[in-house]
Amino acid sequence: MTKLIYEFSEGNMSMRDLLGGKGANLAEMTNLGLPVPHGFTLTTVACHDYQQTQTLSQALLTELDQALARLSQITGKQFNGTEHPLLVSVRSGAAISMPGMMDTILNIGLNDQTVMALANLTHNERFAYDSYRRLLAMFGNVVYGIEEDTFDRVLTEVKQAHGYQSDLELTAADLKQIVTDFKAIYQQAGKGEFPQSPKEQLLAAVNAVFESWNNHRAQVYRQQNHIPESLGTAVNVQEMVFGNAGDQSGTGVAFTRNPATGEKKVFGEYLLNAQGEDVVAGIRTPQSIEILHDDMPVIYDQLMGIAEKLETHYKDMQDLEFTIENGELFLLQARDGKRTPYAAVKIAVDLVGGGLITKEQAVQRVSPESVSAMLHPEFDANAIAQQTPLTTGLPASPGAATGQAYFTAEDAKKAADSGVKVILIRQDTSPEDIDGMIVSQAIVTSRGGMTSHAAVVARGMGATGVVGAHEINVDYAAKVARVGEQKIHEGDWVSVDGTSGELYLGKIETTPAGVKGELSVLLDWAKAIAQMGVYTNADTPQDFQKALDFGADGIGLTRTEHMFFKPERLIQMRRLILATDAAGRAEPLEQLLKMQQEDFYQLYKLAGDKEVTIRLLDPPLHEFLPHDEEEIQAVSQQIHLAPEKLRERTNSLKELNPMLGHRGDRLAVTFPDIYQMQVKAIMSAVIRLHGEGLEVHPHIMIPLTDSKSEMAWVRQLVTDQIKVMTADTDLQLTYTVGTMMEMPRACVTADQVAEESDFFSFGTNDLTQLTFGYSRDDVGSFMPEYIKQGILPADPFQTIDTEGVGALMAIAINKGRQTKPDLPIGVCGEVGGDPASINFFNQIGITYVSCSPYRVPVARLAAAQATLNQKS
Ligand code: PEP
Ligand code: MG
C-alpha cells in the first residue's frame, strides 16, 4: 500500500515531489534538530487520489487517524482536550512554490470548549478568543467561500465603536462578541453551525486545500510559471504555536542576507504579540529584527545561530518564518530567499568566498536575464508602482528612459542638439532615421517585431526600445501620437520601460547601472568556464567600447551599411548608386573609401589583439534612395541630378520584395566596385596598423550567400582586390573570408559552401525569416496572437526555433565540418544574445555567439551555464 502520510521526522529534502517544497523542508529542518513544531504531511499522491474521486480515500482517513494519535502522543495534547487541547494549522505546499496561491487554515481544533481550555492554560482569555475568531474567519472563507470582507466589516465596526486604532486594543469581551457575530455570519450565509468537532474541521480543511489546487488564481499562476497541472499539492498538518500569546510572544520573517543588496547581515522584520498572517498580509507594520535583540536577546542569538546553520546547510540565502511562543522559539519555514538581481550576484560571489559553493555553482545561481536588468537604467520601483501604463508593446530593448516625445528623426536630432532628452516615437523606423535614433533615450514604434529595424538598432545602441505598440497612431503632420482618446504632443514627457514594453505619460525617475564589483567577478568565472566565445555586433567605436567594457571577445558582426547613413555619407552613397557609368561612380567611391578606411582603422585599433569580423554591404540599394517627392527635390539639388532622372533611376531600383531582392552579395555581382572599395578600405586600415606595430588579421564576411559558386565568385572578387593591394609590399597579411549562413539553400549545401569559406556565421534573423516565410519587419501584427494561441511557443526571432531553423543549422554545421572539421561557426542574429538559444547553440557545436553590446554579459553567463548543463 502506498504510504500517504509522512511524519516530519520521516521525510527529507529529497522528497520534494512527494511532500511538496514546504513538507520536505519541514522534514529536513526537523532532522537538523531545529525547533520545528511537530506535524505530518499528506502527500501529493493523496492529492492526486482526491482530484480523481473528489473524496478523501478510506486509506487516507485511516492513516490520518494514526498520524493524529502519534501527534497527540508526542505533544501531550488532544483534539477536544479540556486541559491541553491540540490545535493545528493546515497548509498547502506544492513541489514548486506558489506563494499565496492556495489556502491555509490556522487554529483548527478550537471550539466553544477548547477555547476555554486554551484560556485557562495560557491564563490569557483574550489570546484564546482572538485565536478562535481567526479560525472562524479563515474557515468560513476557505471552506465555505464566505467573503473575507464580511468578517472584516464586523471587526472594523467593533473597533470603530470603541475608537480603537489597532486590533491589539480589542479586549477579551470584544473578541467574545466578535466570535458570536462571526458564527451568526455562517447562519446568514446558509452554512448552518460552525462545526464544533476538531476532526470534522480538519477533514473539511484538508478537502479545501486539495480543492484550492484548482482555484482560478492557482491555475493562472501555474500557466504563467509553466508549472504542470499534474503536480498536485501536499498538505501539512502542524501543531500550532502562538505568536499572539502575550508580550513574550511574537512572529516574524528573516532573511539570512539582505535580499535587496545581498549584504551579509540577517535582515528581518517581526511583530510582538502577533500571528504570522499579520506580517505577511501587511495588516500591521512590523519592526526591524534589530528590535528583537533588545526585546529578547537570548531568542535573538538563538535565531542568528539557526540562520547561520540553515544557510550553511542549504548553501544559499534562506528566508525563515519564525514564531516565539511564551519565550520559546519555533521555526515554521525555511526556503531559498527571493532576491533582486544585484543581491543574487553578490550572494553567489560571496558564498564562493565563504567556501560554501564552487565558482561553477555560483555561475549557475544567477539567471542570465537578471544580469540584463543590472546593466540598464531602471525605473525606481516605488515611482513605477504609482503609475499606470498608457500602452504596451514588445519589450525590444531593456532599460528605462524618460524624455520628451519627438516623431521624426530630424526633430529628434534638433531637440537633442539643444540638450533635450528625446524619446523617438514612430510608426516604424528605417535606416534613414538613424541620426534621430542615435540621440534618443528610447525608441518606440507602433509597428514591427523583435528584429525590426527599430528593435535591432535600439539593442545595438543600448537604447531602450519598445516596438509593435500598435495602439499608438502617429500623425506626423499634426506632430501628435494618439492612443485611443489620449494624445502625446511633441515635447510631452513620456517614460518607456523596455523590459516590460510599457509606455507611460510623464516623467519617472531612473537609476543607473553597469558591470562592476561582484558582477565583473562572476563574469570572469563565466568566461573561464564557457566553451563558446562571446562577441559583439558593433558598427561604431562607441558601441564596441561599450561591449569591451562588458567583456566582449571581439566583434562578430559589423554591419557596414549602418556606416552609410550619416548625412555626409548618404550623399556620396546616393551619387554612387545614381551614377550611370563607372566614371560617375569613381568619385563618390573615392570619398566613401576614405571614410570607410577611417571607420575600420578605428575599430581595429580599439580591438588590439581581439578579432573583428566585418560584413560587406547587405541592404537593398533603394533603402538609400529618396522616397517621396519632397525628398526627391532635396536630393536632386544636393547631387545635381535633374528630378526626372532621379525619379526614373529610383523607380528602376524599386523592388516589390526588397528583403528578397537586390541585396547582400547580389550587390557585389552587379556593383562589384562597392565591395572592392570596402575590401580596399579594410586592407588599407590593416596595412596602416601594421605600420604602427599592430598585427591585424581581418575577417571579411559575405552576406546572403546561397551557393558555392556564388561564394566562389565573391571570394575571388575579394582576394583579387587584396592581391592588388599587397602586390608591391612584402607584407604577409593573413585574412579570412567567410560567409553568413542565412539562406536555407546554403544550409543544405553547406559542405559545398564550406569549400569556399574560412568560417560560417549564422544570420538567424534572415534564416528564420526565410524558414518560416515570416517577414521579420512585419511579424508584430500577428506574432503576439500566435503566442497567445499557443501556435508558437515563443517568437522565433527572439528564441531560436530548434525544430525548424535549429535543425537547418545542425545540418549546416555537420555538412560544413564534413568539409572542414575545424570550421569556426558563429551566430550573429538577434538570438545570439538569448540564453535559451545559447544553450541550444552549445549543444549543436557553435563556436561563438555575437550579440548587441548590452547582451554580452547575459550571453557570457548563458554560455557558461550551457557548458555546465552539457557536462551534467
Ligand atoms: C541576420 O540575418 O541574422 C543578420 C545578423 O543580419 P541582418 O540582421 O543584418 O540581416
Ligand atoms: Mg541577415
TrEMBL record:
Q: Which family does it belong to?
A: Belongs to the PEP-utilizing enzyme family.
InterPro entries, per database record: ATP_grasp_subdomain_1 (IPR013815), PEP-util_enz_mobile_dom (IPR008279), PEP_util_AS (IPR018274), PEP_util_C (IPR000121), PEP_util_CS (IPR023151), Phosphohistidine_dom_sf (IPR036637), PPDK_AMP/ATP-bd (IPR002192), Pyruvate_phosphate_dikinase (IPR010121)
So which domain of life are we looking at? Bacteria
Tell me the organism.
Secundilactobacillus mixtipabuli
Q: Which residues form the active site?
A: H453 (tele-phosphohistidine intermediate), C828 (proton donor)
Where's the Pyruvate phosphate dikinase AMP/ATP-binding domain? 59-299, 302-347
Needed cofactors, names only, are: Mg(2+)
EC nos: 2.7.9.1
A Gene Ontology molecular-function term?
A: kinase activity
Q: Which UniProt keywords apply?
A: ATP-binding, Kinase, Magnesium, Metal-binding, Nucleotide-binding, Pyruvate, Transferase
Q: Where is the PEP-utilising enzyme C-terminal domain?
A: 519-866
- Can you name this protein? Pyruvate, phosphate dikinase
The UniProt annotation places Mg(2+) binding at: E742, D766
Q: Where is the PEP-utilising enzyme mobile domain?
A: 421-501
Q: Which residues of this UniProt protein bind substrate? A: R559, R615, E742, G763, T764, N765, D766
Give the main EC class. transferase
One Pfam family here:
PEP-utilizers_C
